[in-house]
Amino acid sequence: MIILGIESSCDETATAIVEDGQFLLSQAIESQVDIHAQYGGVVPEVASRSHLEAVIPVVSIAIKKAFPGVDKNAAWGKIDAIAVSHGPGLSGGLLVGTLTARTLAMIYSKPLYGINHVLGHTYANWLSDKQPEFPVLSLTASGGHTQLVLLESHTDYKLLGQTRDDAAGEAFDKVAKMLGLPYPGGPNIAQAAQKGDPTKYKLPKASMDNKYDFSFSGLKTAVLRKLQIEIGGSNATLSTQIADKLTDQQVYDFAASFQQTVVETLTGKLLKANEEFAPESIVIGGGVAANQQLRDHLSTQGLPKLSYTDIALCTDNAAMIACLAYYQSQYQEPVAIDDLLVSPSLSL
Ligand code: KG4
Ligand code: ZN
């Protein structure tokens, strides 16, 4: 079964064509990172307009790449279904993707599947020769979500815990801003951290009532307090007044100490859940799962059942959406085209 996936929930307009939930035939991604970097973060209205301009071209590119030399109608004939992220995410972007998917499904008479973007991140791990075996313990850490999920099967899954405030990626982005590093914060903090001392600044790890929940807001505030002290400021010093008073080495050390704290927090929860639920596979997904320090640290923890997906499939992409749609199609009827609405706060 060949599925065309569409993803537009944040700042990437992405399409992909995936066969049988495993084989990536093609993908096309139009990233808006350079546009949003000027503003230090994603501006929703700007994102929606960019999605609108990019969505049809990226559909065409993915189709041409998957079926080279085949004419357009014949290529559409090879596509069995269309899948789209319809939530959670930014409503304008979701609307562009969802309405495009609905329109294409109507024009080309294809079954349509609405996909949960965050669960999609977990399914990036099925785009591999060695597919995860159930029960699967999944950690997703992205710019909007941080959650631990136990999947007993493709249809039976349980949310073990999630963030109570900021997502892990969001914390990377906000701390990067304080340090004067560009958006997106994650890769830039990771790069700065390579030259820093992760033990230089002692930062707190939140302790939660539900041991599988996360909280990164206190960590972000702790970084701010330490930065204020470091530059001889006070509690009233604004986070925007700090970066140009820091030396390069201070930036590197803060980046390394912050990254280490997030890495240890994520690893600690994953280890606890592994002990309690003894899964057959452990997977990680979402933009923060691209973090090399997280991968290096996890690989020293004696977790033989842990596997990693391709780094390029951790950040937002449409392959994971088409992949999840394949499994969803085995157990669920497609949605009626007019019934598929965007759901910006969709949960599991
Ligand atoms: O999954 P994703 O592409 O989009 C959302 O669904 O949010 O994740 C984006 C987030 C951003 O916060 C970004 O800073 C973070 O993932 N990120 C990273 C890395 N690459 C992206 N965080 C840490 N290390 C990285 N290498
Ligand atoms: Zn995402």
Q: What order do the SSEs take from the amino end to the carboxyl end, as H and E?
A: EEEHHHEHEHEEEHHHHEHEH
**Treating each run of at least 4 consecutive H or I residues as one helix, how many helices?**
11
Mean pLDDT: 97
| Cα end-to-end separation | 25 Å
Going by helix content, strand content and strand pairing, the class is alpha/beta
What do we call the CATH topology of the largest domain? Nucleotidyltransferase, domain 5
Amount of beta strand: 15-25%
CATH superfamily of the largest domain: ATPase, nucleotide binding domain
Radius of gyration: 21 Å
- Point out poorly predicted stretches: none
Helix content: 40-55%
Hetero groups = 5'-O-[(R)-(carboxyoxy)(hydroxy)phosphoryl]adenosine, zinc ion
Molecular structure report:
Helices cover 41% and strands 17% of the residues. The protein has 11 helices and 10 strands. The longest helix is centred in the C-terminal third of the chain and has 30 residues. The protein is α/β, with parallel strands linked by helices. It folds into 2 domains: 150 residues, ATPase, nucleotide binding domain (Nucleotidyltransferase, domain 5, 2-Layer Sandwich); 176 residues, ATPase, nucleotide binding domain (Nucleotidyltransferase, domain 5), CATH 3.30.420. Helix 5 packs across helix 11. The radius of gyration is 21 Å and the shape is globular. The strands form 2 sheets. A 5-stranded mixed β-sheet has the order 3-2-1-4-5, with helices on both faces. It has a 5-stranded mixed β-sheet with strand order 8-7-6-9-10. The site of 5'-O-[(R)-(carboxyoxy)(hydroxy)phosphoryl]adenosine has 20 residues, from helix 6 and helix 7.
